[in-house]
Structures are given as structure tokens and as C-alpha cells.
């Protein structure tokens, strides 16, 4: 009842002072929106990206895949310049959702007036590495006929760790930090404390929202609330769509406690896990102020602010 009265007061004030009621109808500002999803490999990024593809026709925006040569996440300075120009000036492709395995590009350095909205998803570092290890050997259910570069190697992840193999070495964990750190040389120096701090700073200052693979539905729900121009209908599509849990790595075997413990001894894991825990805490903080759970179901909180004491007063008001 109190909430209803507050809402009525808010509406009267908006009418009295000529404040426009917020709506999700298309505006000129909406039509200029650009989202960049610099997706980290093996974090359920294909599942999430397919939601964007499924919604683009209905919600009227463009989806563009950034396909770099040899999947190199680092762009040359000339390619960064071209990319920034494309994103900001390619009006025919706006509104747009760009996605690809590319490390963070700092648009501020190029003097653009309006930066894109960055989003991303990360995953528990060891879980991500295990998934990638088996993906290179057995592929997934997305393109089962495609031959992977490690196909035929039947060594398990545990056997690799026990033998000290290069494909499961702690250095292979160093990926999520540099993806957020960006295009500085130090970002790609394995075990760099500076890179870790830069990645944390970029996450909180440059990204609208960073989710985690383990709580992907909550991530989708909050994006729909914050950016309905792109994600209207995304939550229902995730829950019921056939592509919601697409791309499962085949033949994947969970690592033993011994293998996990061995990897966790490395300083590289400790730094990547530090970053993951930092991102998870930030995500849960944002979620706690946006979502509530009731009877096992999640729901978004209603608008919890309104305007009052608007000055100067309208002299023409009777």
C-alpha cells in the first residue's frame, strides 16, 4: 500500500513538473547504443551469444562477430584504430552487439565522445582450463564434426597434470586477467601483479556488468532489466530456448582433488582466482541490489527512487 501511494505521488509530481515518464520505447539514444562483449573462451560465451542472435531480429539490432586471425586476442594498433572507428561511426550497423575473443580495447585513448557498453562473463579458472583442455581434444556438441588441433590425444587432464604437461600447466590459467587488462604488454606477462590490479580496475570502471558462468541466468536477467533495447525477452529465452545450454564439451572428466591441489599451489592460480573472486563478489553485490528470490524464483526489484523538491517551481502553474 505504501509503495502504491509513493508511486501515485511520483506520477503526480511528474505531471505537475512536466517530467517525462521513463519508457522502454525506442529513442534516438537507444538507436546509437553499442555493446561490446569481448568473450573469454570456455565461459559459456556461445550460449549467451546465441541469445543475442535469437533476439536481434525481434529487438531490431545488429550482431557482429569479431573474428581475429588465428584467434589472437591482441589487436595491432592500426586494427584497434579501425575497430574504434567502426564501432563509433558505422551508423548503418547501429544499434550493435559486437562479440569476439578480443582483449579489452580502451576507447578513451582514441578520444571518442561516446564509448560502447562493455559486458563479459568469467568462470572458475580451473573449471575453465579443464573445459578448454578437453575441448581441444574432443570438441563439443556445437560443431561435432570439426577436427580440433589436439584430436586423437586421449590423455586425461589428471594424467597431464601428473606428467607435468604443457597443456595443463599453471601458465595456461593466465587468460581472464589479460582479457580484462587489455593491450598493455604487461597484461600478458604471466603472473604480473600489475596486470591483476589493472584488470580489477578495468572491470569496475569500464564494464557495465560482468557475470559468472555458474550464475548465468542471473546475469541474463539483470541485462534484460538494464538494457531492454537489446535483451527484452532474454530471460525467458534462456530458460526455455533450445540454445540456452548450447556447446557442452564432450568427454570432459572432472579433475581429481590431487590435480586441483597441485594447480592451486601455483602463484598463477592464486592470482587468477583472486580476480575471479573479485569479479564474483562485485557481481553478487550488484545482484543483491537488483534481484530478490521468493519461493525458489528470482524476480527483479521495482524502481526504488523518485524525484521530489524540484526547483525552481513552475510559475505558470495554477
TrEMBL record:
Keyword Transferase belongs to the record: yes
Cited InterPro entries: Heparan_SO4_2-O-STrfase, P-loop_NTPase, Sulfotransferase
Topology within the bilayer: Single-pass type II membrane protein
An annotated GO cellular component: Golgi membrane
Membrane-crossing segments per the record: none
Localization of this protein: Golgi apparatus membrane
Coiled-coil segments on the chain, per record: none
Keyword line: Coiled coil, Disulfide bond, Glycoprotein, Golgi apparatus, Membrane, Signal-anchor, Transferase, Transmembrane, Transmembrane helix
Protein name (database record): Heparan sulfate 2-O-sulfotransferase 1
Amino acid at each position: 500500500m505504501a509503495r502504491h501511494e509513493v508511486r501515485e505521488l511520483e506520477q503526480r509530481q511528474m505531471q505537475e513538473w512536466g517530467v517525462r515518464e521513463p519508457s522502454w520505447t525506442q529513442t534516438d539514444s537507444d538507436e546509437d547504443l553499442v555493446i561490446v562483449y569481448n568473450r573469454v573462451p570456455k565461459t559459456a560465451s556461445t550460449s549467451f551469444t546465441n541469445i543475442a542472435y535469437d533476439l536481434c531480429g525481434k529487438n531490431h539490432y545488429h550482431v557482429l562477430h569479431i573474428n581475429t586471425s588465428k584467434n589472437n586476442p591482441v589487436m595491432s594498433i592500426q586494427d584497434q584504430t579501425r575497430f574504434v572507428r567502426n564501432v563509433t561511426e558505422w551508423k548503418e550497423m547501429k544499434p550493435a552487439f559486437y562479440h569476439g575473443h578480443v582483449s579489452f580495447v580502451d576507447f578513451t585513448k582514441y578520444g571518442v565522445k561516446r564509448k560502447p557498453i562493455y559486458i563479459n562473463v568469467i568462470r572458475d579458472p580451473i573449471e575453465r582450463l579443464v573445459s578448454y583442455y578437453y575441448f581441444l581434444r574432443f570438441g563439443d556438441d556445437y560443431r561435432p564434426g570439426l577436427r580440433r588441433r589436439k584430436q586423437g590425444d586421449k590423455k586425461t587432464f589428471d594424467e597431464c597434470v601428473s606428467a607435468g604437461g604443457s597443456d595443463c600447466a599453471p601458465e595456461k590459467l593466465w587468460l581472464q586477467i589479460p582479457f580484462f587488462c587489455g593491450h598493455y604488454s604487461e597484461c600478458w606477462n604471466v603472473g604480473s601483479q600489475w596486470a591483476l590490479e589493472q584488470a580489477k580496475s578495468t572491470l569496475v570502471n569500464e564494464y557495465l556488468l560482468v557475470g559468472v558462468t555458474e550464475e548465468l541466468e542471473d546475469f541474463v536477467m539483470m541485462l534484460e532489466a538494464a538494457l531492454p533495447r537489446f535483451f527484452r525477452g532474454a530471460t525467458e529465452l534462456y530458460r526455455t530456448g533450445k540454445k540456452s545450454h548450447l556447446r557442452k564439451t564432450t568427454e570432459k572428466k572432472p579433475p581429481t582433488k590431487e590435480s586441483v591441489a597441485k594447480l592451486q599451489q601455483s602463484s598463477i592460480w592464486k592470482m587468477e582466482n583472486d580476480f575471479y573472486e573479485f569479479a564474483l563478489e562485485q557481481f553478487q553485490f550488484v545482484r543483491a541490489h537488483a534481484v530478490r528470490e521468493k519461493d525458489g524464483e528470482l524476480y527483479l526489484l521495482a524502481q526504488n527512487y523518485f524525484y521530489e523538491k524540484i526547483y525552481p517551481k513552475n510559475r505558470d502553474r495554477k
